[in-house]
Design brief:
CATH class of the largest domain: Mainly Beta
Largest sheet: 8 strands, antiparallel, barrel
Oligomer: single chain
Structural class: alpha+beta
Strand content: over 45%
Strand order of the largest sheet: 1-3-4-5-6-7-8-9
Number of helices: 1
Radius of gyration: 22 Å
Distance between the termini: 63 Å
Number of strands: 9
Number of domains: 2
Shape: elongated
Length: about 130
């Protein structure tokens, strides 16, 4: 049986180590939005500054939404890669509605996207981690 040249063994070991290193770096860079966020929402109904508390477990997202217009409400949604979406069931002046937020987590501490508020129209949002 022939013995491999030592340089070939070194190359193979280097490639394996780089692959493991890159896989770990990819796992470390996964999006995690758990925490308290300050939102700015702009829509036909006006501008609001709700506070949103997220709890992320894998891709599953739960949490709490607090604003002057909607009051206190629970939320549910998901985070897949950099994409985030969640819904809030609320009530404004006796009208039940569902707020649907869909956006992108730009950095570990910021996100932006669109809001669909049913009869109240659509809007946009930006958010920063507190």
């Amino acid at each position: 049986m022939k013995q491999r040249p030592s340089w070939l063994t070194a190359v193979v070991v280097s490639v394996v180590l780089m692959s493991v290193s890159m896989a770990r770096a990819g796992q470390a860079a996964k999006t995690n939005v758990t925490g308290v966020w300050a939102f700015t929402v702009e829509s036909a109904a006006g501008t609001g500054t709700p506070t949103v508390t997220f709890k992320q477990e894998g891709e599953k997202l739960t949490g709490h939404y607090s604003s002057q217009l909607v009051g206190e409400a629970e939320l549910a949604g998901s985070v897949k890669g950099q994409a985030i979406d969640f819904t809030v069931a609320g009530e404004i002046m006796g009208i039940k509605l569902e707020l649907r937020f869909e956006g992108t987590v730009d950095t570990n501490d910021s996100m932006k996207g669109k809001l669909s508020a049913g009869e109240l129209g659509d809007g946009t949002f930006t958010a920063k981690r507190k």
